Structures are given as structure tokens and as C-alpha cells.
Amino acid sequence: MAISDADWKLLADLFHTRFGLVFEGIRRSFLEPRLAPRLRELRLASYREYYHYLLFHPQREAELGQLKVLLTNNETYFFREEHQLTLLAQHLVPALMRELETRPLRILSAGCSSGEEAYSIVITLQNAGLELRGVNWQVDACDLNPRRLATAREAVYDANSLRGVAPDVRARHFDEHDGKFTLKARHKKGVRFFEANLVDPAAGVGWGPYDVIFCRNVLIYFSDASFDAVISALARCLAPGGYLLLGHSESLIDRRTDFTPACIDGSIVYRKAGR
Prior knowledge:
Number of helices: 9
Low-confidence stretches: none
Distance between the termini: 56 Å
Strand content: 15-25%
CATH topology of the largest domain: Rossmann fold
Largest sheet: 7 strands, mixed
Structural class: alpha/beta
Radius of gyration: 20 Å
CATH architecture of the largest domain: 3-Layer(aba) Sandwich
């Protein structure tokens, strides 16, 4: 069933209002095949009926919950953009060592998908010997998609999530069985997952204040207004002097924010004023 431009505009505006996500150009072709099965499941004759369902039906919240799964792109894998993980362990955390004698390191993985980023952070901290130096941590990880969060808590992955990870590294950190890789229990230390809509002003994005926030390859799917709203929300839960790490295709340099760009060991990061 083809969707008219008018009906697409209605649905796209609704998705933007509710989730902050933008579906234009090629992203429209990505989403249309995902919506068609929902119309068949609900026995709706048109996308206009589906739009009205999402606005007025008593089960609309349940259906919007289904859309959380359909609308999100969950491309992720272990040790993605590894230079930022190295930066965390070799530069950002050592600068906090005196403070961390009396409190845990606090990190947020925003838009964590199925948990690869959060667990990569923990493994990096452990491999850097920070645990042996007395550093404790709390890594909070949030996502819009409850199914991906369930996978994160289970911590069982297929080979695609470990692409680029050397066999000896896999063996150190995972137990393999029938082509699946189960994260070893010690790497779950200090990690907690929760559901959050980053663009919902009424929803918290963690327990903060955080020393470091990873929000990588998430903002590229937001409109300009939602982008700015998310950055403001992240700034509020980041400690003074804390750092925000974005994906390689995301930047704050041309935006007015509470952050100042800094180049550390060849990587661009964003620091909140105050320390």
C-alpha cells in the first residue's frame, strides 16, 4: 500500500513531536516497509486511518510503544570509535583521580541500543587497570527501544556485534556457544539500563550529575529543535567541567550551547563550563 505525501507528512510530524526523530528522503524509504505490517495487524485500510489510530484509539499508547521498536536504527557494535574509549581511560578519568577517591565515576551512555557501548566502557576501564587503582564506577545506559534494552540486560550477542574484535579479545571477554557470545559477568559491574525518551522534557535522562556522557550517532536522527533540546537536557545532568562525547558525524561547533569544544589527544570533545 503506497502512502500519499499528505499522509506521510501527518505521520512524520507525529513521530517528530513524540520522539524527536526526522524521516526525510532516504529515511522515508527505510520506514515505509516497517509501517505496512502494522496496518495489516490492526486491520486498517489506509495510513490516514493509522494516523487517527495513533491519535485517538484507546490502545494508542501500546501502538506507540511498538513504534519505538520500528523507528529506531540500532546499528552498534563493541568498541565503536575506540579512540574515544581510549581517551576516557587515559585522559578524562586520570584527571579526576583525586575526586574518585571518595565517590564513583559516573558515566551516561545515552542512546545505548543493545548495550555494546556501555559494556565497552566498562571493559576499557578494567583493561586500563583503573579498578585496581581503586576507581569505582556507575555506568547508566538509556534507550528508547525496550527490546534493545532487554538484549542489553541479557548481554548475549551475535558475531555482528563483535565485528572487528580480535579472536583473543573475544575469548577474554565472552563465552561462545553455538555462534552466540555471552559477556562475562565481571564486565557487567556497575552498569544499569533504563528506558528514556531523550526529547521528552518530562522524562529524566539519568541519575547524574555525570562526569562523562557518551551520546554517539544518536543526534543525527533528530530535527534541529530536538537536537538542541537533547543537548540542553544532557548539559543539565552533566557535572560542571564534565565532558560530552559525540559521534564522528555530529558536532556542536556551529551551535550555541553550554559546551566548549576541546581537542584532547587528537579527538574533539565538548566540555561543560564550571570546573
